[in-house]
Automatic annotation (TrEMBL):
InterPro entries: Ada2b_C, Homeodomain-like_sf, SANT_dom, TADA2A_B-like_dom, WH-like_DNA-bd_sf. This is Transcriptional adaptor 2B. Pfam families: TADA2A-like_3rd, Tri-helical_Ada2b_C. Residues 16-43 form the SANT domain. It comes from the Eukaryota. One of its GO terms (cellular component) is nucleus. It comes from Marmota marmota marmota (Alpine marmot). One of its GO terms (molecular function) is chromatin binding. One of its GO terms (biological process) is regulation of transcription by RNA polymerase II. SUPFAM superfamilies: Homeodomain-like. Residues 230-259 are annotated as: Disordered.
Length: 345
């Protein structure tokens, strides 16, 4: 101790003594630098000081922010919210605590514990285990608070951070990315908010790079080896696509002008097509039924209906290709068209 209230390092005293021994040509700082460079970091130090020093103390604690890290119990600054919002959340700012916490009954593990002088070793270890369980629950409670604070869940619950998020977004989030964020929401507890945002930004960059690679490969397949040539190629490709679209639009317009015959391309060349009305053509096309078969079924149904109205008993002999669904559809059509009465159908 050199002066009252001041302590001097022993190494500094030694360097001062060595400087005094060398003479006034060297200061204590120069002596110390010479000693460190020559005897510690120099060849002599490399030869004498081993790389791995035995019996060195190893830090076995969890890294900061890990699942069981001691830093998880560090209290956070109180939330900056109004009194009404505090009451809505049941939040106590002076304690940074809530009326209802995660694992609300965690304190029951230690609330009934007491240390007695006549406790044996088993009872003591049991009480220590209870305390350890309680400390782990406290760490988990604080970890969840840190996650909520990191991801701004309280302002999101109160509806405060929507405008701030919209301002902070550099680009528009697509529907696929929103769905992916919902699927990866369980990762929130293992990653910080910045790490999670960086993950999505990197995924977006990867997607854009893959699209650019596919585009360059397409250019190469078409014989383009320079970026200057790609502009001319894209202009020609857009012209071709525009001509194709115009051609398709003209074809569809011409088809509309020609009428609805294009809808019956599957049956218009079959015999009996010219005997059908427009509604019957639509029915046969939807049922995938040939006009001749439809005319046969229609004739049998109308003939049976007329015989029943005249009181003549008749037994319907419908073709074998007519199942229940087809029969019901044709009967409903003939009834709606007025060919047969509704009670007969």
């Amino acid at each position: 101790k050199a002066e009252p209230g001041h302590w001097v390092c022993a190494a500094c005293v030694q360097h001062e003594d060595m400087a005094a021994h060398v003479g006034a040509s060297r200061t204590p700082q120069e002596v110390m630098e010479h000693y460190v460079s020559m005897y510690i970091h120099g060849n002599l130090g490399k030869a004498c000081i081993p790389d791995s020093i035995p019996n060195r103390v190893t830090d076995h604690t969890c890294p900061s922010g890990g699942p069981l890290s001691p830093s998880l119990t560090t209290p956070l600054p109180p939330l900056d919210i109004s009194v009404a919002e505090q009451q809505q959340l049941g939040y106590m700012p002076l304690r940074d605590d809530y009326e209802i916490e995660y694992d609300q009954d965690a304190e029951t593990l230690i609330s009934g514990l007491s240390v007695n002088y006549d406790d044996d070793d088993v009872e003591i270890e049991l009480k220590r285990a209870h305390v350890d369980m309680y400390v782990r629950k406290l760490k988990e409670r604080q970890r969840r608070k840190n996650i909520a604070r990191d991801y701004n869940l309280v302002p999101a619950f109160l509806g405060k951070d929507k405008r701030e998020k919209e301002k902070a977004l550099k680009r528009k989030i697509t529907k696929e990315e929103k769905e992916l964020r919902l699927k990866l929401r369980p990762l929130y507890q293992f990653m910080s908010c910045k790490e999670f945002d960086d993950l999505f930004e990197n995924m977006h960059k990867e997607k854009m790079l893959r699209a650019k690679i596919r585009e360059l490969q397409r250019y190469r397949r078409n014989g383009i080896t320079k970026m200057e040539e790609s502009a001319e190629y894209e202009a020609a490709r857009h012209k071709r696509e525009r001509r194709k679209e115009n051609k398709n639009m003209a074809g569809s317009k011409r088809g509309k002008e020609e009428g609805r015959d294009g809808e019956f391309a599957a049956i218009e060349n079959l015999p009996g097509f010219e005997l059908l009305s427009d509604r019957e053509k639509v029915l046969c096309s939807s049922l995938n039924l040939s006009p001749a078969r439809y005319v046969t079924v229609k004739t049998i149904i109308i003939k049976d209906h007329l015989q029943k109205r005249q009181g003549i008993p008749s037994k319907s002999r419908l073709p074998s290709y007519l199942d229940k669904v087809l029969k019901k559809r044709i009967l409903n059509f003939l009834t709606e068209s007025g060919w047969i009465s509704r009670d007969a159908s």
